[in-house]
């Protein structure tokens, strides 16, 4: 079967995570993604280790971090600060459908590689710029990093235990969630622009900023403030609007209860041997449970600690209330549902033998994702891609000698 984006060419000038996450999505969908990297260095994440991934003969090479966001791509090395390298970018952009970059605002303009310049070469080009703070505004010139934006965008103010409690204070999320969400928003915007181009024939400039994404991703917490007027505070792993919706200690560890409605709460109370709790006027509805959180939660804590993780999870399945274990990452990949959904893929590689990678969560009935192209080694496809532009072996060797590739 043809891939969904077969025939679409993406010029990837991005590094680190947000941009590469977006272009990996496009590669998963079948686009030909050409990743442009600095000669001799490459994407910064290639060195963000340990751990490093060993080649088939046991030699450590690139950091594991790099492999999370770069499968399905072709890598070329190119120094576009040199005129010969700049000319190659122009030639590649003339043939590309999409360009993704995450340089500082104005960083590409001095080389004539900004959107306005490249649109003259290719009016149909979809040019996506990913920055910390966007193309305008008082912070536009500032560099942006995930943790910084988690702080500035409000996420750390609602993540972590409450002030004055053990472990209290702001915390960042355990993965670079703003980068990942930005990559996903960028992908959505790119696909929308690709659809618009199918009707108009024209490309456009897409401006995606980490701070904008973080503000948008405040979701119900932002809505609670804007519509309710109250500034949300940290509640640890509890939910501001649903009770009980938090982890609880049990006989041999912790379980997560995610009771989303009154029917589920009644089912839980039955399983706990306390059906009267669901009829108590203080707890009969979610709004009442939220209002009486400080009374209800200690009562539940005493009840839940009497059974094991497996017992509570089994009761949840049998009686219809959401309850699950708090898995470490090794247990995530041992989970039968995760295995049934094929969320680990083993990708063959000439360099590494085989690579265990996380699969895409997108499942297609007609254009399934193919996992046959591993993350490329640095410059692996330079000869191939430049050959497609019409350069012969002697010309490419000359570029190597001059440090352009």
From TrEMBL:
* Endpoints of the signal sequence: none
The answer to whether the entry has keyword Glycoprotein is no
Q: Name the UniProt key words of this record, in alphabetical order.
A: Transferase
Write down the Pfam families for this protein, in alphabetical order. Answer: CoA_transf_3
Superkingdom of origin: Bacteria
One GO term in the molecular function aspect is: CoA-transferase activity
Name this polypeptide is given = CoA transferase
